[in-house]
Design brief:
The protein is 48% helix and 2% strand. The protein has helices at 2-13, 35-44, 51-57, 68-74, 87-101, 111-119, 137-148, 162-186; strands at residues 65-66, 109-110. A two-stranded antiparallel sheet has the order 1-2. It is mostly helical. The protein has 8 helices and 2 strands. It has a domain at 49-187: Recoverin, domain 1. It comes from Pseudomassariella vexata. One of its GO terms (cellular component) is endoplasmic reticulum-Golgi intermediate compartment. Residues 1-17 form the signal peptide.
């Protein structure tokens, strides 16, 4: 099964969704790179990405929006390395990021809002919280469930716990995003990025 396979690869190679848990090599990034680029290299070992894939990787509950907790987790504020940061500072970071991203004042950020923000040439700011480690809780969860569901013939329908089903669905979505990024990197010119009037037959 594809989902089980990506879990195995994540333990061997460091994984798409985690920091340096394995042996995969982090991409080298310029010290003057923006925070998003540094975060993707440090935490996810990804050098090339687009707005949609960045959003998906940090939509931790896969509901199509970033709630305040997901924004804080993206910035590593639930990791032990940031346990010293006061709640008042966490609230301030949440307010600042929602002010930048939440254009309709809904209290959360949609994919469209985030993509529009990036397409305007903007980037998530460095909030002085480090590279944004998401923590090891999910990694430990995966190890436990990888041992439980190690049979490569296991199918999603075979899982019974709702948490397991959601967890493996999330990994399948993440794998799809990784494959999409890799496919984009193989194409020198991405037609969707070319204004319509310059496209063939446009």
């Amino acid at each position: 099964m594809r989902t089980i396979a990506i879990l195995a690869l994540s333990f061997v190679g460091g994984g798409l969704a985690h920091g340096d848990h394995g042996g995969s090599q982090k991409p080298m990034v310029d010290e003057n790179a923006d925070w998003m680029t540094k975060h993707m290299a440090e935490e996810h070992h990804i050098a090339e990405f687009d707005a949609s894939s960045f959003f998906s990787l940090h939509d931790f509950d896969s509901d199509g929006r970033w709630e305040p907790e997901e924004i804080l987790r993206t910035y590593g504020l639930f990791d032990d390395s940031n346990k010293h940061i006061l709640k008042s500072r966490r609230d301030e970071i949440t307010r600042q990021l929602l002010a930048l991203l939440d254009t309709d004042s809904s209290g959360y950020v949609t994919r469209d809002e985030f993509v529009m923000f990036i397409n305007e040439g903007k980037r998530l700011p460095d909030m002085a919280t480090g590279p944004g480690h998401h923590g090891d809780d999910e990694y430990e969860y995966e190890i436990h469930h990888w041992e439980k569901y190690h049979d490569e013939n296991t199918k999603l329908e075979d899982l019974t716990h709702p948490e397991d089903i959601e967890h493996f669905k999330k990994h399948e979505q993440m794998e799809d995003e990784e494959e999409r990024i890799e496919a984009m990197n193989r194409i020198q010119i991405i037609e969707d990025n070319i204004p319509g009037k310059f496209r063939r037959g446009g």
